[in-house]
Amino acid sequence: TAPSARRPIRPLPDELISQIAAGEVVERPASVVRELVDNALDAGARQITVRLVGGGVRLIAVEDDGCGIPRDELPVAVQRHATSKIRDLAELEAVQTMGFRGEALAAIASIAELALLSRPADDPAGHAWRLDARTGELQPAARPPGTTVEVRELFYATPARRKFLKSDATELAHCIEAVRRHALARPDVGFAIWHDGRLVQQWRACTDLDPTLAWQRRIADALDGDFVAAGIAVDASAGPLRVHGLVGRPDMARSRTDRQFAYVNGRYVRDKVVTHAVRSAYEDVLHGQRQPAYVLFLTIDPHAVDVNVHPTKIEVRFRDSGAVHQAVQRAVEAALAAPRSAAAGAAPL
Ligand code: ADP
Ligand code: MG
Predict the structure, then answer these.
(1) Which atom of ligand 1 approaches the CA of 82 most closely?
(2) Model pTM above 0.90
(3) Which residue among 178, 203, 228 closes a domain?
(4) Coiled-coil annotation: which residues (predicted)?
């Protein structure tokens, strides 16, 4: 419509509001996988199984053994801005869960066929229920305690988006990468990924090992055994800020940034401050376009970081970004300068 033809101001229909929100959160199947695995982890899952068909476009089903959702709350879970994770501003500012916006399920339901199947772990009767988000129909079902979220025909309602998707193989690779990001931070949780009926990845939970060993095993499984064997452990604190993890020796640097994982309070982030700080630490030892490999965990007072900056929460804002930059740079510099130690890697948790 021409900008000159003024039309009356009207609130947008609910459906369209959700579709606009979905545009921010869901770029491709991997974005859905990330949101659903976030939810499974928030529910306390110990085992998470992701089943994909057709690169995740035909079907994404994420199954967990977490706390479940009571029957009465299933319809609420798919409403916009409905969440069990925060209740007020004070809780938002101290948030520790992956989710808090109460938007993901509603957004996904507006651009795909969504069904929830859940059995609360503490339900004495042990009943499971299935909710079809489109029809609102609730039916008895069967499953062990936990939740399965099924997402079918992603972007069927928004064909323009669907056109941007790549081949099944590419979308699958992005989905695996989304799960890998979670898996590196949670060696205590088992992950399995199926595609078109085949098991394509499996990272077993390491519960019987001490946390450092468990984490080394998980990095070796989910990323690279050589990185664990030859990497350098980082563990430094600056006041309440702790930086720990594993960095690659300069000679292990790569031409790609595919071995760069940074987490803030367990949340995977792509953060300029952290990236730049690591880069600065390597400045004298890494030349040209070579990229350092690292898996780094920042533990920080939740009040000192704002995670509510970006709908996908992949960006964060630090209250004192200078202090964070300095802490990360010093931690990595100290690790690179230390005589090479045999035991690599500090526990992330
Ligand atoms: P958010 O995660 O920001 O709260 P979502 O739309 O992702 O918003 O989920 C809405 C609510 O549904 C959550 O707050 C949670 O109570 C419930 N929920 C979603 N997925 C699961 C799950 N896998 N297990 C248990 N509860 C879940
Ligand atoms: Mg969520």
Answers:
(1) 10
(2) yes
(3) 203
(4) none
Beta-bridge partners for 295: 246, 261
pLDDT tens digits for range 115-138:
999 999 988 888 999 999 999 999
User: Averaged in consecutive runs of 10 residues, what is the pLDDT profile of the chain (349 residues)?
Assistant: 84 91 91 97 98 97 98 96 95 92 94 97 90 96 96 90 92 98 97 98 91 92 90 93 94 88 96 95 88 95 92 91 97 88 48
Which of 188, 177, 334 minimizes the C-alpha distance to 247? 334
- For residues 20 and 310, what is the distance between their CA atoms, to the nearest angstrom? 14
Cα(227) to ligand 2 centroid in Å equals: 32
Name every protein residue with a CB atom under 6 angstroms from any ligand 1 atom. 35, 39-40, 43, 64, 66-69, 77, 83-85, 99-105, 147
Q: Among the three residues 152, 170, 203, which one is the final residue of a domain in this structure?
A: 203
Tokens describing residue 161: 């988006």
Read off the CATH number of the domain in which 281 is found: 3.30.230.10
How many domains does the chain contain in total?
2
What are the b/e assignments for 232-253, b being 16+ CB within 10 Å? bbbbbeeeebbbbbbbbbeebb
The answer to whether 311 touches 21, Cβ cutoff 8 Å, is yes
CA dist 11 and 18 (Å) reads 13
Q: Tell how far the Cα of 339 is from the centroid of ligand 2, in angstroms.
A: 43
Maximum Cα interatomic distance, the chain, rounded to a whole number of Å: 72
Q: Whose CA is nearest to atom 23 of ligand 1?
A: 40
- Closest residue by Cα to atom 7, ligand 1, is 104
Residue 315 lies in a domain: yes
- Can you give the residue range of the structural domain that contains 157? 14-203
What ipTM was predicted for this assembly?
0.99
Which ligand has the shortest distance to the CA of 145?
1
245 and 179 within one domain? no
Which residue in 254, 273, 255, 256 sits closest to 264, CA to CA? 273
